[in-house]
Structures are given as C-alpha cells and as structure tokens.
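Q: My labmate handed me this sequence with no annotations at all. I'd like to see what the chain might look like in three dimensions before we decide whether it's worth expressing. Could you predict it?
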Amino acid sequence: MQKILDSKAKSDLKSANFKALVNGDSTHLYVLRNTKGMEVSITNYGGRIVSLLAPDKNGKLLDVVLGFDNIQDYLAKPNSFGAIMGRVTNRIANGTFLLNGDTIKIDKNNGQHAIHGGSKGWRQQVFRGSQLSDSMLVLSYLSPDGESGFPGNVKVKVRYTLTNENALIINYEAETDKSTVINLTNHSFFNLSGNPQKTVLDDILFVRAKHFTPVDSNAIPTGEIRSVSNTPFDFTVPTSIRSAINRDSTHKQLVFVSGLDHNWVLDTDGNLEIPAASVYSPTSGIKLTVFSNEPGLQVYTGNTLDKTQKGKDNIPFQKYGAICLETQHFPDTPNQPTWPSVTLNPGEQYKSTCIYQFSIE
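A: Here is what I predict for the chain of 361 residues:
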C-alpha cells in the first residue's frame, strides 16, 4: 500500500502542485525529515530530489539543490534535475554496443549518441512510491524488455534514507530476466550556498582520484585513463573550482565541454568508509561529502545551464550555477571491455550505494 506524506514541506513546496497523471500513472511529492530539522522532498516522477534543506553555519536551513516547484515544469521538456539516471547513466557512443555477441541498438537522444538511458530513460518514468517512515522512502519500477532498446525486464528498487547524522543514503537494487546493462546514479544539481544566482566556481572541491577518463569533442570517453597530475583535473588536494580551471583554461578537455563534465577514477576501492569526494561552500559553510561503492564519479559544473529555464522562486538556472556529483561506473563502459563491467545477468543482483553527507566546516 502506498503511503504519501501530504503535509506541507518546510521548503514551501505544495504537494498539490506535484499531482498529475503521466502515461496513466499518478505523480506525488514525498517529504523526508530527520530529528535535526533537515528535509528532503522527492517526487516519484523520475525519483527526483526536488528540494534538500540543510543547515548552514548559522543554523539556517538552505535549499541546496536546483529544481522546480511543480510537476509541470519537470514535464515541460526532458531534463535531469535531481533524477534517477537509468538504465545506463551518462553516454553510450553511437547508441550501440555488443552484449554477449549481440549488437544492441538503443535510442539516440544526444545527437548520434545515447545519454542517460535514451528517450525513455528512467528520469521520465513514474515510480511506485512507498514511504516507510518519516525518514525513508522506497521507489520501485518495472522497466519492460525493449524499453529504449535495452534487453530484459528489469525490476529496480531505490531506497532513500535520511539519517539523524544529516546524511541522505541512496541504495539501488535491480534484477533482470535477460542479460542487460545497468549503471544508475542520482543527478542532483547542488548549490551549497543556497543561492542559485551564485556560481559554484569558488566552492572547494576534493576528489579522491589520481586519474580521469578524457573525452572527445562529443564528450564520449576515448578509452584512455589519464593522470590528473599537472592538469585542471587534479583535486587530490581540496581546491577551488575556479583556480583549478585557471591552471589551464585552454586545456582541450575543458574546451570540449565548457568546464568540468568528466568521470574520475576513484581511489576508494569501493569502500563506503572512505570519502570519494567533497565540495564546500565558503559562503554558507556547508560541506557535502560523498561516499560510494562505485568505481567512478562524474563531476559536472552546470556548463550548459543558460538562464532559459527558471526554477524555484522563479530564479533562472545560470551557467556554473550548480555542481553534480554522480557516483557511477564509467561512461560508455559497454563499449570499453577492459573497464569495470555494467552487465547484469539473470540470477544476479545489482547493488549500488551513494551517501550524501552534509556537515558544517
């Protein structure tokens, strides 16, 4: 039985504004709270984190994710704000890959390539929601065989848990009845200043990775794993995003994607006890630390945001107005057989965990 928390959110989001029918399925807004006053609002349309209120250095709750205050804006055109990316996050070159000797062709929704699961990716699907407590939500979805061209009926379950230590834990589980590929992440756009009109360029970023996967001019990985040493991609020591980019603003990798939009090869060996990355806002004092059992992390600095869309409080999304920290297997892995595999076979269970830990520094 579906339990829906309809009480008004501290964020001033109204649950009535998130009620709609999408392909015959009902959308809702769910609100998670902990004993520290933190609050996370999530819609079952794409499993999107709509709002995340975290305390700043003065104890004031700030909304630190970009999003909209109604379901219609999410439906207006495909977007990734706060959503579950599936079946395969990020890019697949030419929308084609080999799986057990068979050529799989999926929908191309990024020029000649596929991104975030194709034209029927999970960010555009309605999940079934079950709120188990004030601090836990489970979303589930059955992705049919052939959806966006991917093989297999895939059952997925995503559990969001807001702890009293101000951590949002996202657990992903999936199983299939036919060999397929799975690579899931959350695509929240964080602005830890709480002010979307302020860029994240002066935020301090740390990534526990000595290597990254460079891309070509279409943002498709070349297959190389390259050292970050002496490049703008070295965040092994906490560094402001602006100063890192200014090390070599004409670096071809920066020019290709107008900023950071790359996958880092994490040096955590999948250990959830070791911080994979962190970002800190000197303005608010809020620090976000990321933990994951995934081998990679995509860092994206909102390079394509261009003020054409307006979010909560009617504030336009501006270039470099947010940072995404997407835990994942590497982009285009189905076409890179030497990289950690994303193949899921019948009888196996896909499991992935991402922890977004908020603190004050």
